[in-house]
Design a protein that fits this description.
The protein is an alpha/beta fold and 384 residues long. It has two domains: 3-145, 3-Layer(aba) Sandwich (Rossmann fold), CATH 3.40.50.720; 149-260 and 296-382, RNA polymerase sigma factor, region 2, helix turn helix motif (Rna Polymerase Sigma Factor, Chain: A). It contains 17 helices and eleven strands. The strands form two sheets. The chain has a seven-stranded parallel beta sheet, with helices on both faces. The longest helix is centred in the C-terminal third of the chain and has 22 residues, at 361-382. The structure holds magnesium ion. Residues 146-148, 217 line the site of magnesium ion (MG).
């Protein structure tokens, strides 16, 4: 029997590529789909893959669906994705929801004891402690879909924790790599959305430009692999061919290489522990010729420092960091905040907010919400 997969956030970049992987794999089938509001593409996916169970966060957008496709069981409203996870039979959940909105479904998946293919790094940034608590009671595998963490997961599989000295996350550096702080003043959303190597959604593309994406990934790696913040390095690697490295106590440095194509980590997570063929070009290192690396400039890209500081301050601070960043990125995309204002807003909110670690999902929601309010005020202060 094939492995039955629920894809949350199926109309986004990761969701669409996951469906491509599933279409080519006799071992996988889709049983549930969810989206925020793009009901047109969701309906097409449901028809194409014969899926009867879906969730749509935007209840208004979902109204037209039942008339068009009466046999479809549609859950709507906030929490619809988590309800889908609780209500239907499945073997694995891919969470590719963007932002804090993905946390509830992550918790629901782990509470059900289902393996979680995780592309929603914000789940761990905002609710890392809650996730750890559930997994202490029910050990459930989390299979990272983030390319760096998929690489680290594969590199670490055969290593004892005592053999690992540090993790090295690679970063493309984004479109503004090499610019000084002063050269980042007048960046427009269009410039920030033009990512050199990875093809991704808007939120993560802006996060890649500010390096906040790497900051969130430091926190994600800490939770996934139990490594301390001082032992997670960041290395700028513009080619995005080395996806991450593991430094071992005997001096060995293990690397994971491949073309930057999200179908590879998606396929790995969905087929785990088996491997399946993915139609990506063969990486020809002789043709590549050389690989370039440099240290990140933490003055021009303060997001790395902010994320590391928040990580060390604890799970309340990382939840606040994520909320403030989501609000700031949104404001930047709407031209209400200049590019450099994103990190300023995050830093100000981190200083103002109560950062007591949430003990329940409800407390995480409250903390996230209060940080968003502070961030909106900070946006007005720093905005145009
Ligand atoms: Mg990544």
């Amino acid at each position: 029997m094939s492995r039955r997969v629920i894809i949350l956030g199926s109309t986004g970049s990761i969701g669409v590529q996951a469906l491509e992987v599933i279409a080519r794999s006799p071992e996988l089938s889709v049983v549930g789909l969810s989206c925020a509001s793009q009901v047109g593409p969701l309906l097409e996916q449901a028809v194409a893959y014969g899926v009867d169970d879906v969730a749509v966060a935007d209840a208004g957008a979902a109204e037209s669906m039942s008339a068009l496709y009466p046999e479809l069981r549609v859950r709507t409203g906030a929490g619809a994705a988590a309800r889908l996870v609780r209500e239907i039979e499945a073997d694995l959940v891919l969470n590719a929801i963007v932002g804090f909105a993905g946390l509830e479904a992550t918790l629901a998946t782990l509470e059900r004891g289902l393996p979680l293919a995780l592309a929603n790094k914000e789940s761990l940034v905002s609710g890392g402690g809650l996730v750890a608590e559930i997994r202490r009671q029910t050990p459930v595998p989390i299979l990272p879909v983030d390319s760096e963490h998929s690489a680290l997961f594969q590199l670490l599989e055969r290593e004892a924790p005592t053999a690992v000295r540090s993790l090295v996350l690679t970063a493309s550096g984004g479109p503004f790599r090499g610019r000084s702080l002063g050269q980042l003043e007048e960046i427009s959303p269009e410039e920030a959305l033009a990512h050199p190597t990875w093809n991704m959604g808007a939120k993560i593309t802006i996060d890649s430009a500010t390096l906040m994406n790497k900051g969130l990934e430091i926190i994600e790696a800490h939770h996934l692999f139990g490594v301390g913040y001082d032992d997670i390095e960041v290395l700028i690697h513009p080619g995005s061919l080395v996806h991450s490295l593991v430094r071992l106590v005997d001096g060995a440095l293990l690397a994971h290489l491949g073309h930057p194509d999200m179908r590879v980590p998606i396929s790995y997570a969905l087929h785990y522990p088996r491997r399946a063929e993915v139609a990506v070009p063969r990486l020809d290192l002789a043709e590549v010729g050389r690989l370039d690396f440099s240290r990140p400039d933490e003055e021009a890209f303060p997001a790395l420092r902010l994320a590391r500081e928040a990580g060390k301050a604890g799970e309340g601070a990382t939840c606040v960091l994520n909320a403030a960043n989501e609000v700031a990125v949104h404001a930047f995309l709407e031209r209400r905040l200049p590019y450099l204002g994103i990190a300023q807003v995050v830093e100000e909110v981190l200083h103002q907010a109560d950062t007591t670690p949430p003990q329940t999902y409800e407390q995480a929601v409250e903390l996230d919400l209060s940080a968003r309010c502070l961030a909106e005020t900070a946006v007005s202060r720093n905005g145009r």
